Amino acid sequence: DFLLRVLVRRMVEIDAAMTKMEEDVAPEEAYGAGIAQKNIEQASKPGVLESMAGILDAQMMMLFEFLQRHLSGTVTDAEHQLVSALFGIFESTVLLTHRARCVPFLWFYLVSLRPAWTEAFLSLLLHTAFSPCIAIPKRLISLAYLASFIARAKFLTKNFTLRTAQYVSTLAREHLQVAESHVVAGDRVHPQLLLFLYAVQAFCYMTCFHTAEFAAPEPGDTSGRTALSTLLFEGAADVGAEAFGPVLESPSNPIARINKQVAEQFCHCLSDHNPALVVALKQRLLEFAGQVPTHFSQGDEAGLDIFFPFDPYRLRHSSMFVQPIYRDWNEDDESNADPGEGFAAKAAVAQMPNGRSRASSDGADSDRASDVDFTDARDAVERGFLPSVGPSPAFRPRGSTDMADIMSPLCMPMESAYEDCDDFALPSATVPMDAASSSLLFGLMNSAAYREGREGRVR
Fold first, then answer.
1. Which residue, of 43, 112, 282, 447, is most buried by count of CB atoms within 10 Å of its CB?
2. DSSP code of 99?
3. SS (H, E, C) 420-454
4. 153 bridge partner residues
5. What contacts 349, CB < 8 A, 6 or more positions away?
6. Is 0.90 topped by the overall pTM?
7. Where do runs of H (alpha helix) occur along 153-190?
8. Of 27, 18, 108, 62, nearest in space to 356 by CA
């Protein structure tokens, strides 16, 4: 556990430093983000970025193979402890580093191996986002992970995506009144307002990737209502706690305060399903144009910028573990405008010689297809993600944050429940069965009334 934690921490440091270098951030800003000074100074030398990408790619390949070798088969107590340790490392190290763009895919791959681990991962993020005892920046990062994971995980069933979207919408509804009061008071950077806007953005972002799925009618349902219409509160007699319509209708105009690209894509994806709502939302965007920056929270205000942790994976060799389980943005659903950050169909940066995103070519595509042969090639159904599979009744955004409680019992080997109970026996009867103590019962059964009733039933 200790060695794995140290290795992941070092990989996160390299990952975040590379991201900072690619964005041409000034060294003093990188220092403020917790990046080691020597990494920034070394990065200015020619070829250092390529070398770091190659090192990180090799480390990611090693850990992907480790997870595949130890967690793809039968789950025993040792595997269960490993998964719990990995979730602990994610919560204490990875979740706190919002600039890491590659290392989080280790957990993306991990949870794709079992539906129970997917539920545990989503539960961890939901508990963090909903907990008032956790610092606001960590709750914002958790919402970003929720949105990006639900959007990009191709193996998720509708039951997982819809339930998570409902919970995120519920979080936005819970903070709606407080957010409106801060907007009226002119406190545009209050932490509670930022949390509300992040929840709004997370819901809109994941809906962009699942609009068609949510709009599809349920098999056997003749009411004509869909999951999308219920979420948007269309024609419903009662407003559920998860209905997002009241948020979109709020006088605080949250749709115009989130990331501009997310808002525009959200409107574009809904245009075929609810034209009237889209017209109203576009009018709100026009009224608010020019009043706020594209990103509603800047580093000085919220402590972090908008980011999507599961944007397309950009390391060359280790990408073969991610590609089969990853959902690209459907270009047919994009508007004519530049889709912007978070909606890239492929990695935007050309592949570096030693590790980063490689340019698309026939040879590259064939290499990638052959690479997949060395990974666990089972599809989502074979891994347990049947269309009917969804989270358990215990899946909720509030509750214990102890990983032993979050992890589903299905993660544990069934035979382990009996190892310590070999002397199991049924309890002894509390009522003596001898004739003397049961004389009253025997007398009633031999009475004339009992015999007459029994003979009557037989006839």
1. 112
2. T
3. CCCCCCCCCCCCCCCCCCCHHHHHHHCCHHHHHHH
4. 326
5. 22, 314, 356, 357
6. no
7. 158-174, 176-185
8. 18
